[in-house]
Amino acid sequence: MKLAAALCTAAFVVCGLAACGSGDEAGNTAGSAATSAHTALDDAKSAAFVASFKAAFSPLAEGRSDEDIKAILDDTCGDLAESSDEQGVQADIKERAENNGAEPTDNQARQIYEMAKVACP
To answer: What is the Cα–Cα distance from 88 to 10, expressed in whole angstroms?
Structure first.
């Protein structure tokens, strides 16, 4: 729901800013609005990942801040950009997601992997 609201807001901002101004100024404004919209979308995807992680993997999320969980996403996105080895990335996810002795199962690591693929920029 928050993602849809963020996308709607971003679309209105882009359209509104593109309509204001003329010539090069309009192009610059539209470009910066598009960048802002892209950033808003990335932030919304990160927030959705954090919320989904907390809901689906409460023992792994217990006591972790949103920033800690987002770091799992950020590190996994880096792995995905560098490697196509799904098993290797999932093994790294298992290490990152371990929390106070609670370790993700292979199935949970695969689910986190799939969630990250969708949320990565």
So the answer is: 36
The predicted-structure confidence for 56-91, as pLDDT tens digits, reads as follows 999 999 999 999 999 999 999 999 999 879 999 999
Question: Looking at residue 102, what DSSP letter applies?
Answer: B
For 63, the 3-state DSSP assignment is: coil
- Cα dihedral sign for 20, 22, 25, 28? positive
Identify which of 15, 70, 8, 86 has the alpha carbon closest to the alpha carbon of residue 40.
8
Give which of 101, 98, 100, 97 is closest to 112, Cα–Cα: 97
Angle between helices 66-82 and 23-56 (to 10 degrees): 110
Tokens of 112: 């986190």
Q: Where are the domains positioned within the chain? A: 2-119
Q: What is the number of other CB atoms lying within 10 angstroms of the CB of residue 32?
A: 12
Q: Which two tokens stand for residue 52?
A: 């989904």
